[in-house]
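Handout, section B. The chain below has 234 residues.
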Amino acid sequence: MKYKRILLKLSGESLQGEKSYGLDPKILKQYAHEIKKVIEQGIQVAVVIGGGNIFRGAQTVGSSIDRVQGDYMGMLATLINAMALQSTLEKIGVFTRLMSGIKMEQVCEPFIKRRAVRHLEKGRVVIFGAGIGSPYFTTDSAASLRAIEIEADVVLKGTRVDGVYTADPEKYEDAEKFTNISFQEVYERGLNVMDMTAFTLCRENNLPIIVFDMNSEGNLLKVVAGEEVGTLVY
């Protein structure tokens, strides 16, 4: 296997499947089984999930809800998703730990780097919820920061698109896919891989990002094995 410790970033929207809101049990089971395949190969797995399928803090801009309050509400949405994935993983025999940027002792541990690394070394999937615990930071930023803190080999961004393209492939049929692309070229072309804070964190710490289609069965294992799946940003 090419990578020994990974951080998997999943969007909240991906968990809603064909639904317009909330969680799709089929998608949760599918993702859990994909993660289990990787764990069985001895790979250490950490996960960060967004909350857009339930609530997104940025959507409060211009509403009666303060942006800071809205961002905290979004963090709680990520915890709901994290708890759902944790429960689904444990039902298929995968040991997990849920760590949160916001203290919530009844359901999760606070994030402590050394404890997180120890859980990973023991073969547990560590799920990071509530972002970094501060407003104005996206879950992309949380994924980059946590990956750097736990010294992950790579950030794997699982999406419904199979890589990085010259333009949105869902809108433009002539969009071309990159097999690999440098951080500098992504920046110069203005391509949307992660938000700028998250992207800069990875770039400054030489942490590669792979964007791939998480919904295709077996893709996660292929990426970890080093096969050319998705797009490598280096």
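Note. The longest helix spans residues 67-91. Compare this with the example in section A.
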